[in-house]
Input
Amino acid sequence: MARKSRALPEINAGSMADIAFLLLIFFLVTTTMDSDSGITIKLPPWEENLEQEPPPIKARNVLEVLVNSNNQLLVEGDVIRVNQLRDKTKKFITNEGLDPNMSVSPEKAVISLKNDRGTSYVTYISVQNELKAAYREVREEYSLSKFGRKFDDLSPDQQDEVKDKYPQKISEAEPENTGAE
Amino acid sequence: MAKFQKKKGGGSPAINTASLPDIVFMLLFFFMVATTMREVTLKVKNNTPAASEIEKLTKKSLVSFIYIGSPIESLKEEFGTAPRIQLNDAFKSKDDVRTFVETEREKLPEYDKGKMIMSIKADQDVKMGIITDVKQELRKANALKLTYSTKKKGADDKGEL
Output
C-alpha cells in the first residue's frame, strides 16, 4: 500500500518564550552586575625575626604620614586635611633637592604611612587614594613634558621609563594602638 | 451591487508573538555575558568606600574575597554588631585566614599560583584594627597581592575631610 507523503506537522513553539523567560529570570536573580575594582597594593613579605636593621634612609627623603584614631592627618609634623595631601605629596616627590627638608630625588623619595588601629577604613582608603593620585599626576606631567603624550598612551618601554623616574614607594608601618578600637 | 464581506467576529486581531522568543533569548544572552555568578551570600554589611585610583580586576578566577563588616540586620541578635570577617559563607576569625588562603591557592592551576590576588571587601565604617590583623595574616600566608575593593569616584574629588 503506497503511503501518502504528508508534510511533517509543525512543532509548536508557543511555549518557547516561556522557557526563555524562565531562564532569563533565573540569571537575573543569581548573578550580579558589579565589576570588581579597587586600590591595589603589594604587601611586604613576612619576616619572622627582624634581626637585620633596615637600610638607613635620610630623614629628608621620607614623607611621614600619620593618621590617628580620630582620623586626623599629620604630615611631617603639620596637621592637614586629606584634600591637601595630594599637593603636599606632589611637592615632596618633585622637589629634586631644592628644599633641604624634602626629597633629594624622586627615586629616593619614600612615603611612610602609619595609621592607628582605631583609624576608620574610609579615611585610610582616602589617604591611600590621595597618595596614589599624587604619583599618577606626577607621572602624567612627566610623560606629557617628555613624550608629549598621556601616560596611558605611551609604549610599555616608555611607561617603564616614567615609572623608573617616579617609582611609587609607599611603605606602611605597623599600626599603633592608642585609641580604643 | 458590490458584495461586502461580512466582518469576522469583533475584537482586535492577535498580535504575532513569533519573534518573542528571539527577543527574550537576546536578553538572556546579554545577561549571561554581562553578569557574574553570585558566589557567596553576604552576611556582613558591605558598603565599600569610594576611590579614584582604582584598577579593574580582570581575571576573576585569580581573585579571592575576604569580606569584613558588622553583621547584617537579621543576624545582629545572634552575632552582635562588632565587625567580623566572612570567608566563603561563614563568619571566621583572623586565624582562619591562612587556611583560607591555602585552600584558595590550591584551587588555582600551578602556573597561576603566584598570581593570586586577595581582595578585601570591607565596609566603610570598619576600623583599621581588624583590617591590619587580616593584612598581617595575609603576609604570613605569603599572599602579597592585595586590593581594597572600592567604588569609583571622580579623580578630582579629594574627599570632604
